[in-house]
User: Fold these one by one.
Assistant:
Number 1:
Amino acid sequence: MRGLILIRSALVSLFLIAALSDRATAQAAIGQVKTASGEVTVLRGGASQKVVPGDHVFASDVFETGADGSVGITFADNSMMSLGPDSKLSLDKFVFDTTTHEGVFDSSLSNGTLAVKSGQIVKQTPEAMKVRTPGALLGVRGTEFVVRADGGSR
Amino acid sequence: MTALRRLLLALPAAAALAACASKSNLVVVLPEADGHVGAVVVRDEKGERVLDQAYAAAGSGAGAGALKPVEVAPEEVTEIFAPALSAQPMPPRSFTLYFISDSDRLTEDSRAAFGEVFAEVAKRKAAEVVVTGHTDRSAEPGYNDRLSLKRAKAVRKLFVARGLPPDSVIAAGRGEREPLVASADGKREAKNRRVEITVR
């Protein structure tokens, strides 16, 4: 009888651990793909997949476009980014508090063209949004700008 | 003389080539639709530069070199960035609905206005809605944080009831932090008892 109870409580705690860790690993989306045409892929958790409008976007995603590709994304703080062809953008870090509007948005454009409209993170904290390029680090005070990157690796 | 002439002839071509090479890496600040111009701070191995005028730009040749100021015409931006610019999502649109004092019930006018908000949602592909609740300053900040979230959640329910997927509607509370009109602490102010709805 005692053994049974032990097994039962062990099972219950296993279940609880599973439930908690599931919640810890279930990442919240940081944005959504609104436009996509031509070849657009995202590298997420080591796997590359095709991108279509409506897809959720997550921190650490790396977006790549082909010679005919372009993609437009809106983020949780209303900022927007869009890529032209032959581009590669890493969404390195995105944190946003919907109550205080404090946050951090770090990304890297290693190749191609990027158009940006900053959102509430920058409005609350100028330069909390940064875009890294092969030669520079851009601190965003708002709101609209474009970036072209050519790391010279090709 | 011939050598000099040849040099003079070659100069514009060389200048054009140099101009092109110095824009392989490029940052350009654009004017916003309302004419306002923001700013971008460029930091690299050579230091720091603030770009804060319309079409202010910095560029460099291919590779990881420091960026220098460059002249960029608006037409050039259009030419280089056309695919990226045309892939930009529709700009978010915002609406405000108002509440009865100390409650999560919409005023009669705002209940009627909800239809217009939903029409904007129906118009968009992969629409998302962010409902941010606000309060006036008639109660304590902690209470107002809770009341503002309650208001946002009440409006969120209206969207879900109309068929929007639950994970496409986000509710958040901002308490009394962001009044629409300034008011003294402890005072009621109908214009601040609201939700702001962003459709994107």
Number 2:
Amino acid sequence: MAFFFQELVNGITTGALYALVALGFSMVYGVLKLLNFAHGDLYMVGAYIGFFVIRWFGGAAHVDIPVPLLLVIMFVLAAGLVGGLGVAIERFAYRPLRNAPRIAPLITAIGISFFLENSALLLFGAQYRIYNTSDFISLSSGIQIGSVTIDSVQIMVLVLGLLLMVGLRQLVNRTRLGKQMRAVAVDREAAEMLGINVNFTIAATFFIGSALAGVAGVMAGLLFNQVTSTIGFIAGLKAFTASVVGGIGSIPGAMLGGLLIGIAESFITGYVSSTYTNLLVFGLLIAVMLVRPTGLLGQAQLQKV
Amino acid sequence: MRKSVIIAVAAVGTLVVAGCSSSSSSSSSSSASTSTSSSAATTACVASTGMEGPLTGPVASLGQEQLHFAELAVSMDNAANHTNISIVQGDTQLTPSIATTVTQQFTSNSKILAVVGPAGSQEVEAVGPLMARAGLAFISGSATAAALTTGKYPTFFRVVSKDSVQGPEDANFIVNTLKPKALMIVDDQEAYSTGLVSAMTPIFTAAGIKVDHESVSQKVTDFSSLVAKVTPETSVVVLPWQIAANAQQFGKDLAQEHKNAVIFGTDGLFSPGTFEISGSYVSSFGPDITGIAADASIVAAAKAKYGSFGTFGPPVFAAQHVVDEAIASVCKAGQTPSRANVLAAIKTTNEPTSILGQAIQFDSNGDLVNGKFFLFKINTAGSYLLNSTQLSS
């Protein structure tokens, strides 16, 4: 039973990360109907920002400010800078193509992905950058229940991830900006006629989605200890899959999809074999798509005639 | 509904890409660009050499180290031999199809007289026939699959030993010295890794060791679920991987889940400063040249120019040096360097000593004569100590 709970904890932690990245992916799709394949690379940039903040404040072994303050700076800077980068990408790469055939921004997104990945390679080098989280956050400072271990970084990821997901849901459902986002998602032209500033709303969506990816990147750095220019590829892929399985465009769907993938990966690795993890997880997801092409929480859209 | 179906199809398509990418790097196009070596050449001994390596992609850290050492070798050899040899870079991303494209570019460039690389055995398999057809000598500093030197690639050479030596030697060391009752062995879904696992597993099984064989992509960075499977009786985890940062994370996950298994890694895990799990072992085709007194000037130059390094760079330095010396010897003989005479000169290489601390001479199939493997143990300070049991062929 302890093994079951250990795998569950591991799966939920990883799933929370997937969910955070998936949220941004799903938001952008919801508003722009754009599959933003550069989203995973924003996560990579966030992870690098976290690493350089640690280095700026003395390095993992000699952090010269209180650790909670360091963490706040890491998350805030990653969210702000990556959010800004997302807005810049939208302004210069996607906005000019807003009325182009849908394949054009899709290809542009892939191009931006490679641009960011190779820029990081040139700027930061090919070597893996190591967070060495355990040098400033003790591994033994978590919770031990029997033989189930939940370390403090996992707890932080879970709590922060949950807070961000709930906060985002509140923002979308309860605020004026959220209403504008939903209006633009439903019908951009009608929203514009109603006086909604569509450009601002889309930019805000990109900022929030990208900021979440930046935060997830820092979380991944703290959790998995490493960052390199290629980590965005797999993260983006998982986020896309989570979004689609949950129902692309749906915020609860993205959360559900991320958590499902994380937990499925964990249990298949634990109870079957890591050799078959991708095979079985993606097989399962294909089955979900065949049964519910709109995703678990997605809704079929009416076609205007 | 139609949009939903489109999205579902896109998702399935992406999954197919994901499946493909588990055994290959990202699919950006190959590149071939020129970087000239620094030398004040004073003679007409001018030549270009190719350098194939994973300069981008998941193992770019290893490829960049290889490139740095190739550049360093050319720089030093040009100064010593008064030659003007330059390097043409080819990024293979450790992917056979991309290596093939790069090789086609190299073989059609008549200025290139020999090639250093590629890094991976699967890439050598892909480019071997092209190189042979072009009469282009190529020397790898890290391709270790035994099948490469059976005579099918007559222009292929390597300055490192082969898997058929490393796999069994490593396995026997684990069986006889670490004496596990159960172990976990995890391949990284690359030909290099699965080849070593295939060579080791029968020895473990024959010794009555309970083996849990797992497999994770190089792109995976979360090992918590896998580590949870390490049972109390599992005292050794074998990681024949190429990415040291992944092994470091695996070790951290072991500690976090209070598991005491010892990690035994290979080649790519030799990375002081990145993989430093105390008590771990690493077997490597390359020595730690920082411990070789004769290499002090090279070590100093490399550290000053590129920072810290592992064991993937020095063998490429050795390979590039062989090529440079072959070209220089042709020039000294009063000939104009060509692919044919450089190939002939490489075949007769006989260096009594090298950066690797051993002689370099090739047998008729291109294998290094008396190639060695080196076994290191990581101490509590994260330093790599040469184990008293040195593996050798």
Number 3:
Amino acid sequence: MTPIQIEPFKIYKTHNPKLELIKKIGLGIFFVGLFFLLVSLTGQKDVGGGLLLFLSFGLSIIGALIYCIPAFKESPAGIKNNRIFFNGFTSKGIIAFIAGIIITSFYVFLYWYPGLLVNWIRLVDPLSYTLRGVKADRWFLYGTFYTLAVLVMGTKMIIKYRHNTYQIVRTLSVMFFQLGFAYLIPALLIMFNKPEHYFSYFWPLKYQYLFPHDVTTLTANSGALGYFMVMWGAAMTFIAVPVLSYFFGKRWYCSWVCGCGGLAETAGDPFRHLSDKSLKAWKIERISIHSVLVFIVVTTALLWVNSATDGKVLGGLSQSFSSAYGFLIGAIFSGIVGVGFYPIMGSRVWCRFGCPLAAILGLFQRFKSKFRITTNGGQCISCGNCSTYCEMGIDVRAYAQRKQNIIRSSCVGCGICAAVCPRGVLRLENGPEKGRYNIVLDDILSKS
Amino acid sequence: MQNLVIIGNGISGVTTARHVRKLSNMNIAIISAETEYFFSRTALMYVYMGHMRFKEIKPYEDWFWSKNNINLVKATVNSIDTDNKSVILDDGTKISYDKLVVATGSQTNKFGWPGQDLPGVQGLYSWQDLELLEENSKNISHAVIVGGGLIGIEFAEMLHSRNIHVTFLVREEFYWDNILPKEDAKLISRHILEHGFDLQFGVQLKEIVAGDNGRVKAVKTDRDEIIECQLVGLTPGVHPNIDLVKKSKIETGRGILVNDFLETNIPDVYAAGDCVEFKEREQFRFEQLWYTGRMHGEALAQTICGKRTKYERGVWFNSAKFLDIEYQTYGFVAAAPRDGETSFWWEHKSGKKAVKFVYKSDDHSIIGMNTYGMRYRHKLFEKWIIEKRTVEFILEHLAQANFDPEFFEKHEDEIIEEFNKQNPGANLKLKSKRGLRNIFSKELV
């Protein structure tokens, strides 16, 4: 038998030292950038200026991007989760703990010791003057870090999932909302001397937006724009949440719009498999997330009662509730645990165990929605990729191997379970409520 | 209370146990020498590649078994004494049964090649094989895989993920073309080459050569070519693992002989999964797939619990993933066209997506479909095959069966266009598309 030659369109090498070198160079430049970032933290108070900004932020970004690019040439597009459980950074090695401590420390400094960050804040002054017309503060610094993380790691995400249009579109969406709605628009508002406002956040995630203080301040001081901001927030909470969740599930917000979700889906992607899949974790999740929801509802109600009665009935009680919520939930839970523990507990700890908005969206998704993940007949081989890579810790396989559709309040609809499934078993769908829990085949067939 | 003893904790044994538990409260013990807990054999490759660990490929948490009162026994069975209805473990322990299920799976084929038992030569089937592979693949740079089946391509992909260069020797003209039609096999072969594997067609293994250290050093092909390597993966298929049963009174052929009820010649002794041979069948006497193993278990549980149920294999289906290309098959697609059959092939310009439809030449009713790089609804394809729908009907309604994620490019229009081009006179039009309408309708369209 004479072998027949087949010409592939392109051939990738098993091992490509040139690409390894490019990645190392990228990583090197990234660390040089980080070095300058550290230097600037310890340096003179009047460092400022464009050069150091470029050397620190600029080199970090360029280095990170150079590191991502070779993925195109390493292998054909497809699911490539090789070595995730061997790499210490992505599998709770020492380096992961170090990264966790660094991020956690940053949050501690940011909330309680901003003086330690003052040189970084001065470093982004030029950027702040350009975008906002005023000098930087710690929240601008935080927003800049946050947005850069979403943009750079979003680019990496898009390269990784370049064969998957759903992932590309979804990632572009979170990058767009972070850059536009959570960074540039608030900056422009300040530039024009208006109150800083984030249109992509609303109560109860951004709980202050329906607190009496914010509502009265905005409507009293900012005229029509202030009224619009309050109405927009209320409309999102009370109209958009039920309506959009009914049609699309909670994913319309959690994995397409939300900034917390945006960071989890980009910078958090390398840690998504660290979420706990046990039944026990699910039990804790249900108690914890709904407790936070009750906490914020009670706090908001108390504040309004207090405001309506001019503090005569409740005295300082509502204010104590509000401060406690801000400290325990706003700072410690959503910030320190939510992001600082990425390398240890996965990228969605806050979204899964704490976010009260996710709790509300989840209730709609669970009980009144068209969204479901459909299981394709008997094709499941119980391999476990879906469960492993579910950032919300849902044991997707438990449903798929029983041929059941997956309807869980916590599912953010990121679609990674469907992407990593090697047998094409899962599909995110918006469909009729009838037969949602399991597709009624006759319904499809009656149309054919 | 009755004792059910199951030998083997693979998908067949475990499915039998789970379904028996749903129907009955009899005592259940599953004996396995491989691992204490059930794992997904199809996922072994992902452990080696670092996508998952052993923990992740266990489909049930460890508490599941005691909660459902299923006893797990990690031990090797030495013999089966059907006269006294007991199995004897290798430490001499005797476990008596009222009903026995043998689900011992299969073993890697070896064809008597010189050097096939050398250190560094191995198959890939069990957890122990994976542990051995970790040892055998340490610090090596080149491996040879012999045999181009589904395990072969997985084995190659695994080694590739560790930067080990793979030479893949395939006896056939194209990869897996004893199962896949030519066009299909060519598409997959091209994809394997794209990944940088040294895929060689029409080559057979002649001999495995040892080095001075007694380990494998090279292979010699039937063209007397020498290929240096430090590891040889043997993947020329599997055969039933029946060494244990052969010593008993249970009747065997190449596998454990069973009827369509999965009953052996001995009352109260059953067999399921890879290890069985269906003695009443003319063809398809062996079923060595994950899915069939599961379905054997489901049917057998009914019989064990007193509702004697025939195992029906139903409309055939299978699926696999060749590196980045997903493959699904439904019905029957023969490697070479049979008399009275016509086939239709559409391939996307990327060379990574395709469909193959095989239908009867006279009435155009569908016989089988293969899909590559695109996902389709299992239940709908199955229904169309049962209803003997024509290829024209299926093509016109193909969009309804599309199961690709949202926003993926749809190709049903192109597929129909191609069919019309290949079949002058056919003037098919796509009837309905999926899309936003589903969000607003009461029923799925």
Number 4:
Amino acid sequence: MSEQLLEVKDLRVRFGGGRDIFLRKKEHFEAVRGVDLTVRRGESFAIVGESGAGKSTVAKCIVGLQVPTSGEISFAGAPLRPAKDSDQRRAIQMVFQDPYGSLNPRMTVGSAIGELLRVNGMVEGKAAARARTAELLEMVGLPAEAMGKRPRAFSGGQRQRIGIARALAINPTLLVADEPVSALDVSIQASILILLKRLQRELGLTMIFISHDLAVVKQLCDRVAVMNDGIVVESGTVGAVLAQPKDAYTQKLLEATTELPPIEISRLGSVAASPSETPG
Amino acid sequence: MSRANGVTPRHHGALLSVKDLGVEVAGGLRPVTEVSLSVGRGEVVGVVGESGSGKSLTLKAVAGLLPRGVNVCEGEIEVDGIDVAKASSRELRRLRGGVVGMVFQEPMTALNPTMRIGRQIAESVSVHAKVSKKEARAKAIELLGEMGFKDPRRSANLFPHELSGGMRQRVVIAIALAGDPSLLLCDEPTTALDATVTMKVLDLILGLSAERNIGVVLVSHDLGVASRVCNRLVVMYGGRMVEEGPADEVLRRPRHPYTFALLHAVPTKDSSIDDLRSIPGVPPAPGEAGAGCPFVPRCEFAEPACTQGVELINLGAGRVSACRRQELFPDFVEATSE
């Protein structure tokens, strides 16, 4: 558990800068201003912050979708260079916020995941690909018949399940989930959170979970780093940070977190009660 | 129409009274069925529901802003004594902005990007009152101050793109208030905003309802947002209202299986993943739900009779539920003896 899988040191990402077509200097914007993170193997690590905090930029650097301006990221003891190292690329997979945008609308689910499996040499032959796809879909709670359908045919929650199946297809070591439930309806969110927690427990996945919502983070994660304005303002175990936030920003964020009066009914009357019709 | 020069309220109690509202889309779909709602002065009523629940269409119907091809097919909407369905376009125009102010989800699309915010607010001030340009501008600056802008005189010269999301939403609220409305309709006013900004905007809305003694309808998908500011809640699902009551009571002791399930599915900072219960299935698409209770396919307590029709049951103490199986709820005995 304590073995570290990912280490981020003094990560900086700067956008803009350079000169425009009239050779005027362009303003630059530093989205990430020196971030240090350590993610241990098997843990679920949250990066929390509001829009503009730089949390998604950090996530993009980890999966290799963004080249850092400076700083070091090491993965399993080796420097992270996903552009060159295809094993690393396979080992780190991402689940996106908008599941529809991350699925090819013209491919059936079966062919999309099947292609991924074959290209990455996970299986040989179409039959094996189908079998593995069915297995993956079952793992995320979808029937095997889902294979023959295109993303359009699914609801938001089901699409996110497909997005998760796709990310898990090539047995990643690290799953980076960027706001995986924020685009979903309230009544659907819980089922995806429960699914992610189950997968975490069953597969021993290491997960980096990006979110703006401390309440969601509390359900899923062991440790959390709170980001604001490109830096980590506070980090620690989720329990400690939520119970006793040290930083003023974390406190503000916590105060703004969903709080409901406690529900006083834990279950509804027995279903087996008299099914007789009430008059009128 | 005879009421052209002044709006005289017919009802003393409710600013807004919606009775058995039904909204129909050309082609026969019914995305809103039998929704009733009443809002008084100083009251903040939350309409909560998921996407497709009909909450936004209900609000648009109230403002007379239904998109083309979508019509009110049954029921009554009265705003300050004016029947919205029968109102002339002239009356509607005065209603919008004058009696009813609206705040939408996306502040950037509600604002004119090429116009300084002071002018935008002043413009809506002069639409609703006969004032000089100077007076309108003074009112605009005053409104900006009320919205929490620190230096309203200088802020009035800013363009929308120079403001943060929260500040833009404050400008939209200022515009909505420019005509001194007595009813403020807010459609997901904080959904596009960050959590900490959300709280500030909600506090602002709450303060306005108290200080100006106006009625507020807040449509939201977020129970946390609604619970923070609303006195009363109307929970919608599949185009119908499933439950209504004082906010705190609805959240603590729901009287509909949907509200019950939803409350057990929402992660909060006090809940743990092992207590969360997911709701199987998906919400019906707008207009897809039939004559019966729209929650039937996802409800573990559904009986055959539930598919026959829905009746709103008055439970007393301002509470209404659309679930016929009230015997499921522990409050049942208590409520029937009232």
